[in-house]
Amino acid sequence: MKEPKGENRVTLLPEQAEALLKKNVTVWVESGAGASAFAADEAYQNRSILIKDRKEILQQADLLFSINTIPPEEIAQLKTEAVLVGIFQPLYHFQTMESWAAKGITTFSMDTIPRTTRAQSMDVLSSQANIAGYRAVLVAATIFPRYFPMFMTAAGSIPPAKILILGAGVAGLQAIATSRRLGGVVEVFDTRPAVKEEVQSLGAKFIEVEGAADASKAGGYAVEQSDEYKQKQQQRIAEAAVKADVIITTAQIPGKKAPVLITEEMIAGMKNGTVIIDLASATGGNTPLTKNNETILTANGVIILGNSNLPGGMPFDASKVYGKNVLNFLQLVIDKEGAIQLNFEDDIVKGCCITHGNKVVNERVLGLLGTGSN
Question: What is the pTM of this model?
Answer without folding.
Answer: 0.89
